[in-house]
Write a structure and sequence with these properties.
By secondary structure, this protein is α/β, with parallel strands linked by helices. It is built from 10 helices and 5 strands. α3 packs antiparallel against α4 (about 75-95). Bound molecules: cobalamin.
Amino acid sequence: MENPGITEAGLDSRKNFPVSLRLAEMETALLSVDRVKAGRIVRDSCTAGSPFTCLETLIVPALEEVGRRWEAGDVALSQVYMSGRICEEIVDSMLPAGDPRRVDQPKMAIAVLEDHHTLGKRIVLSVLRAGGYELTDYGHGVSVDQLVEQVTRDKVIILLISTLMLPAALRSKEAIARIRKIQPGTKIIVGGAPFIFDPMLWKEVGADAMGHAASETLELVNRMAAEVKR
Ligand code: B12
């Protein structure tokens, strides 16, 4: 049976295109390192004004599936790498610039702790900037020592930590304990795959909260910002 969404003619109108087929198509484009096609699938599938929803319903699950296939030995690490790079380019082209009307806010920062999976942080940062917050970006591959030093030097009040590797997530426990010793008032939000796989991990590492997805981060940060002002 011919699939209407896969023909060239159908690519520009995909409102009724089944999500599972769109995802499969995206995954194939990523694994074939076809950045043009991947970009077109995203453009055609996502309505203007909802880039974050699009990221979370198309790009994130497609990358997760690529990861699962790599784990199963079906695809090469180079394909995972190129899939990540292509998605980074797409994400960069889609995300809105920061909202110029900055809110009156506590000092905030974000980092990827001992890990080089940067895409999640990139999205969370954009969601918060688009929501009116300004944050210091400490980058990725940040060590525990560096993070403690930076957060206490800058007197950060709300800290967001992203980790995609389990060992890095476990290391956040030491970072959080050391930061709390020096600055007990700092609120810490963690996120990333290990915290999703183990829903109790955020409590075990001593965080104040965890975010499953970038889309819920703004609400979380709004709540914390209100708490620290009280
Ligand atoms: C793409 C990818 C890569 C790319 C990264 C490209 C880049 N620049 O980021 C490359 C190829 C470089 C890579 C390398 C490696 N990877 Co990798 N990678 C992935 C993959 C497939 C997708 C990750 C991703 O980008 N997802 C899309 C983003 C947008 O989603 P996200 O990060 O989860 O973020 C969302 C939420 O989690 C949340 N979020 C994230 N952070 C935060 C923080 C806060 C505060 C909040 C509120 C929310 C939040 O918001 C985001 C948007 O909704 C995952 C599989 C997976 N299931 O996650 C494996 C995975 C993370 N990688 C893995 C591994 C093992 C590796 C390598 C060690 C492989 C190797 N042998 O070299 C290296 C290590 C690199 C390093 N030192 O960091 C493992 C980790 C296993 C583990 N338990 O620790 C995974 C889970 C694959 C697997 N199933 O085995 N990887």
